[in-house]
Specification:
A: 2 domains, 11 helices, 7 strands, B: about 260 residues, Rossmann fold, five-stranded parallel beta sheet, five-stranded antiparallel beta sheet, 8 helices, about 30% strand
């Protein structure tokens, strides 16, 4: 089994053509390439600018056309195997090049052989970029695989596990029903911790998990902990990395509530704003004894890394210390399983190819999730 | 005293943990006469209770707000009849190793009743763990220094301390209000509290937060030296020649 899982995770995949990070990287790389090409072709430095203008004259429309087609076809492309995907992207490059050539040639005739040069340039750029994205994904993927293991080893503090068991034991005699619920919460929590957490899951699942987690903390801490949930306007169907919030809440309790003899409030604020999901977590914080900072930074770094893996530059995690509070602000793009596309971004193309299949895929994925929850 | 019951104080910041310990102790009561004298939520509360009602055994959690278990054990040694302390810990990274190494008694949470009973039966033969050993345990710096006055233990919050001055056998603790006498080593205190205090003289540590500034003074015989000006306290502290770099360093910090 382990071998199969490893094989799956190492299989190359095409980059997400709708990700701002991907698009940005392609734009920068191709334009840099064009600039270098222009400089190389220019007989002297002074004429490099004219060369550059000429090169960008075909590179820019060509590049934007290819990117637009790939953007539109992205949901469909993501379901192809890597090999077929690469061939499709190559075909897109060739067809877009010839189309553009036909149009521009009609406007003002181009010298013979231009088409071949364009397509060679396009294919070379495409191959290099795909190779780069493949290498990048390979470099980052072990981190995703290990996220699961790490979740087990570092995310839930052993301290929390044993103290919770102890709290449940204390209820056994006096309040067996509450003890039952607490054990069920613990079972759910550990089920999520132990499953494969590489794929995105709906935000509502994460919130449910966090509620169970906070129930357990409340069992131990009683009146010392108040939890303020502001989740009424959250997009429950938004896809987030599993265990995005729980480790941060664990930190909030460990560093904000436990060391204090006075009661404190942990607040969770989830909302949608301009096509982005925001999560703001706040806990009281007294800026002295600095022994706990390293543990906190580890959890933050882990969540930040996973956000980067899933969303690249479109997500961010910021933390700040105010006079008496500690605040973490997460921002991620709003993606859902049904659409698998960012809302707020106007749809440029018409009906998306394969959008119907896509929603079916989303539904079956959700079914699988429910099975996991029930199992 | 084989007949008198074992007097026990429970210290834990989590109510369920205290209840659990109480349940277990009641289970042990059949095999061993014992009396639960009380429950405290942190070390400070425990110390307050023990001033008036002595016990034989303190069962304490380690990680607690205000004053943790290890610090409590250190202050308890100042009592006229220090109780035996057994630590109960859920899981404390490397702490367990240190406990083993120093042969300090501890119980792992969740505690089994047999283990607890075994520990209780040992208590009459145990002596309180020495301050030496306690200082070996991984712990954060103490929040309080404790001094004995008229057979009571008085806690001095570390953040209130303006300076510590070694004089003959004792160390003088100076707060804005008054002075206390402490029997400890200045060097140990310096390492324990690190950056909070700065050594301005061979025999003196000044609290950085309480330093207002420095003043150049010339003696009658023409020798010049620096004096530390303190907030909340009128007197000043001489800076020794060897520690003069402190004036430069702190001067730069305040200027920046």
């Amino acid at each position: 089994m382990a071998a199969i899982i490893r094989q799956n995770s190492n299989q190359p995949t095409l980059p997400d053509f709708r990700n701002m990070g991907t698009i940005l990287r392609v734009l920068v790389a191709v334009n840099l390439g064009a600039a270098v090409l222009a400089y190389a072709r220019a007989p002297q430095l002074a004429s490099a600018y004219a060369e550059w203008l000429e090169v960008t004259g075909f590179v820019e429309p060509y590049l934007l056309l290819v990117l637009a087609v790939l953007w539109a076809a992205s949901p469909w492309l993501s379901r192809l195997s890597f090999g077929i995907g690469v061939v499709t992207v190559a075909l897109v490059t060739i067809v877009a090049g010839s189309l553009l050539h036909t149009v521009l040639d009609r406007l003002s005739p181009l010298p013979p052989g231009t088409l071949a040069r364009w397509i060679v340039f396009g294919l070379v750029a495409m191959a290099m970029l795909l190779f780069y994205f493949h290498l990048r994904a390979r470099a980052l993927s072990p981190a995703i695989t290990e996220a699961r293991l790490e979740a087990l080893q570092a995310r839930i503090r052993p301290h929390f596990l044993f103290n919770s068991i102890n709290a449940v034991l204390s209820l056994m005699r006096s309040d067996p029903r509450r003890a039952e619920v607490a054990l069920e919460d613990m079972a759910d929590l550990f089920r999520v911790l132990m499953r494969d957490n590489r794929n995105l899951a709906p935000l509502e699942d994460e919130v449910e998990l966090c509620r169970q987690y906070m129930e357990l903390e409340q069992l131990r801490l009683g009146d010392r902990l108040t939890v303020d949930w502001n989740v009424k306007s959250m997009p429950g169907d938004a896809l987030v990395p599993p265990l995005m919030l729980q480790p941060l809440l664990e930190n909030a309790v460990y560093h904000g509530i436990e060391p204090s003899s006075t009661p404190g409030t942990v607040s969770i604020n989830l909302f949608l704003s301009r096509g982005e999901v925001h999560a703001i977590l706040k806990n009281p914080y007294r800026a002295e004894g600095g022994s706990h900072h390293s543990g906190n930074k580890m959890a933050l770094a882990n969540v930040r890394e996973r956000l980067a893996l899933h969303f690249d530059a479109e997500a961010s995690l910021e933390s700040r210390v105010t006079k008496d509070a500690y605040e973490v602000h997460i921002r991620i793009p709003y993606r859902t399983e049904a659409a698998n596309s960012a809302t707020g971004v106007p749809t440029v193309t018409g009906p998306m190819p394969g959008s119907e299949d896509d929603s079916v895929g989303g539904a079956s994925a959700r079914l699988r999730l429910m099975e996991v929850a029930r199992a | 005293m084989p007949d008198s019951p074992l007097r026990i104080l429970i210290v834990d910041d989590e109510a369920p943990a205290r209840r659990r310990l109480r349940d277990l102790l009641e289970d042990c009561a059949a095999a061993l006469p014992l009396a639960i004298v009380g429950e405290a939520q942190n070390g400070r509360e425990a110390l307050e209770m023990l001033q008036n009602a002595p016990v034989d055994l303190v069962l304490t959690d380690i990680r607690m707000p205000d004053m943790d278990g290890v610090e409590l054990a250190r202050h308890l040694l100042k009592l006229s009849h220090p109780p035996v302390v057994i630590f109960a810990t859920a899981f404390h990274e490397h702490a367990v190793q240190a406990f083993e190494l120093n042969a300090v008694d501890y119980l792992m949470k969740p505690i089994r009743v047999q283990r607890l009973l075994g520990a209780l039966q040992k208590v009459p033969r145990l002596k309180p763990v020495s301050a030496e050993k306690l200082s070996q345990l991984p712990a954060t710096a103490r929040r309080f220094l404790s001094v004995t006055e008229r057979s009571r233990v008085v806690l001095v919050p570390v953040e209130d301390i303006v300076y510590l001055k070694a004089e003959l056998k004792y160390i003088t603790i100076r707060t804005a209000q008054r002075e206390y006498l402490l029997e400890e080593s200045l060097t140990r205190l310096e390492t324990e509290f690190g950056a909070r205090f700065v050594r301005v003289h061979r025999n003196c540590l000044a609290a950085r937060d309480h330093i207002r500034g420095f003043e150049r003074r010339v003696n009658d015989d023409g020798d010049a030296h620096w004096e530390v000006l303190l907030a909340d306290v009128q007197e000043t502290l001489p800076v020794s020649r060897r520690q003069q770099f402190v004036v430069r360093e702190m001067g730069r910090e305040t200027a920046a």
